[in-house]
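Journal club prep, shared notes

We agreed each person brings one worked example of a sequence with its structure written out as tokens. Mine is Spore germination protein N-terminal domain-containing protein. I'm keeping it raw so we can talk through how to read the token line rather than staring at a rendered picture. Sequence first:
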Amino acid sequence: MMCVLLLSGCWSRNEFNDIAIAEEVGIDIAGDQFEFSVQIVNPDSMSKTKGDQALPIIIYAAKGSTLNEAVKRLASSMSRKVYFSHIRILVLSEELAQRGVSKSMDYLQRRNEFRSDFKCDDPVGIQIVGNTASGTGTNKSNINFVTPPVRLRYFGNGVFKNDRLVGWLNENESHAYSIITDHSKPFFHACRLSSRWICWP
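Then the structure, token by token:
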């Protein structure tokens, strides 16, 4: 009888209609507070009747003196429970990284909703370029352009000392660092010799 009670497998189930699946998490500093943002998959965008009109994602944000307070305020503003097990991207602001990321990362790692295999090996810098005002709103106009007025651009790899961001490596410096540390992935090198370009893997 005791074995039957211990074999129960549905105690931690999450119904799809009760959860909001988060794909990305962003953490920023706003004055003396943390600002916690999540990008949620919009279930209406998967519907056959509303898929063409509905935005594929919805963004929620909340502030708090601590990350825990910001997350709780965020949860109280939503009708569904945020489900963090499908996080693919973690965005930390440059200001937060310069102050130190150990507390933020420690908080995320202690939450059992985050997957244990979610990790960041190479912190990558991303810039928002273009007309940022035209990239905000409640419709899909920005993503319907062949060349959108606002977009993301690779900036380089961040250099950390302990838990603080101290500088950036550009693309060439990042490739050189990867080769030196034996973490380079297959790509082509190019150099100019006299009037010719030479490429080799």
